[in-house]
Automatic annotation (TrEMBL):
Record organism: Candidatus Sulfobium mesophilum
Gene Ontology BP, a term: DNA repair
Keywords: Hydrolase
GO molecular function: phosphoglycolate phosphatase activity
Protein's UniProt name: phosphoglycolate phosphatase
EC numbers, comma separated: 3.1.3.18
GO annotation, cellular component aspect: cytosol
């Protein structure tokens, strides 16, 4: 029986693509680097902020990663929800799932994840919020998921993870949990084939979980 649902954040609960792109372009502005489009940005999102900037700058600009990261965090923390909003049906569905424990496991830093959820009035739906710096390893490692299970004294069979990327699916499978991929997020559907289930709209989640139980 499913007792806890773990959610990815960006690309699953919220569409944060414009604000992340704006922060990335602000951070790299002084260095004469071409501006990123939203499509280009979301293709690299998922492994955390540091890795995003490392991939964007490349090895030839590795020396400026720390200062670009500092500029990114400084700007982004003040512009988390300029354009970011929950995907359709997210607040209503989270409300319907009130009988389940719920956690957010993001590869975004915990303070930024929590602040974003607070600004969108979503944090009230979750029992715990973990970010990339909450555990010694981040997704696709299963460690953040196992930490949540341990916190609630639950077994892997009692949990499910919902996400939009292969990192979520790989983490869930490694933790021994069932996995649900959302096809509307940042990743192409081809990267989600390892998921146990797929949904095209967040509102489908409640019915799917009812069937699993």
């Amino acid at each position: 029986m499913i007792k806890i649902i773990m959610f990815d954040l960006d690309g699953t609960l919220v569409d944060s693509s414009i604000d992340i792109t704006n922060a990335l372009n602000f951070a790299t502005g002084p260095y004469g680097i071409d501006r990123m489009t939203v499509k280009e940005t979301v293709s690299m999102v998922g492994e955390g902020l540091t890795r995003l900037i490392e991939k964007f700058l490349g090895e030839e600009r590795a020396a400026i990663v720390p200062e670009v990261l500092e500029r990114f965090v400084g700007y982004y923390s003040g512009h988390l929800t300029d354009f970011t909003a929950p995907y359709p049906g997210v607040p209503e569905t989270l409300q319907r799932l009130g009988n389940y424990r719920k956690a957010v496991i993001s590869n975004k830093r915990e303070c930024l994840s929590r602040k974003l959820l607070e600004e969108l009035d979503l944090v009230k739906y979750f029992d715990i919020v973990l970010g990339s710096d909450s555990v010694e390893e981040k997704k696709p490692s299963p460690k953040p998921l196992l930490k949540v299970l341990e916190f609630f004294s639950l077994q892997p069979a009692e949990g499910v993870i919902v996400g939009d990327s292969n990192f979520d699916i790989e983490a869930g499978r490694a933790a021994g949990m069932r996995t649900i991929a959302v096809t509307y997020g940042f990743r192409d559907i081809s990267s989600l084939k390892g998921a146990d289930f797929m949904i095209g709209h967040f509102t489908e989640l409640a019915e799917l979980l009812t069937g699993l139980n």
